[in-house]
Specification:
Elements: H1 2-89
């Protein structure tokens, strides 16, 4: 009878050891996943900063291009008005 008890206790101990081993493996896997998540988060943060920086530069360039185009059109309109006024004065 004591051997049956001993065998039963040994099986329970083995079962607990297996469960604890599985738990340790899960904790290790979780730690690795957290490290990967942290790396991905850092990379995403860096990429978003670069995107914002590039978008700001592009916006500034487009505003300058728009300003140049507006100035060119304004100059052309002024020249046309001057030509019309001069033609009217000298005719």
């Amino acid at each position: 009878m004591s051997e049956d008890r001993l065998t039963k206790v040994q099986k329970e101990v083995d079962e607990v050891k297996n469960i604890m081993g599985d738990n340790i493996d899960k904790v290790i896997d979780r730690g690795e996943k957290l490290e990967n998540l942290e790396e991905r988060s850092t990379q995403l943060n860096e990429n978003s900063y670069q995107f914002k920086k590039g978008a700001t530069k592009l916006k500034r360039n487009m505003c300058m291009q728009n300003l140049k185009l507006t100035l060119i059109i304004a100059m052309i309109v002024i020249i046309i008005i001057l030509i019309i006024v001069l033609a009217a004065v000298y005719s």
